């Protein structure tokens, strides 16, 4: 199982809308609003790394009002 954590910056005041959109993506397992340098933290899981890449590129990064993302990939076997 491939997993990643995605740190997300969005437009001011759009956090709840972005969180709602993220929760509608099947491979996203957790979503949290955060304080600090990033606005939202999301955990994503898929059977294959390529599936993660597709979801991040074509679903998450296309959500309206997301300004930027930073993806942290989990290392298989180090959990």
From TrEMBL:
Domain Transcription regulator AsnC/Lrp ligand binding: 6-73
Classification via Gene3D superfamilies: 3.30.70.920
Protein name from the UniProt record: Lrp/AsnC ligand binding domain-containing protein
InterPro entries: Dimeric_a/b-barrel, Tscrpt_reg_AsnC/Lrp_C
Pfam families: AsnC_trans_reg
Record organism: Marine Group I thaumarchaeote
Taxon lineage: Archaea, Nitrososphaerota, Marine Group I
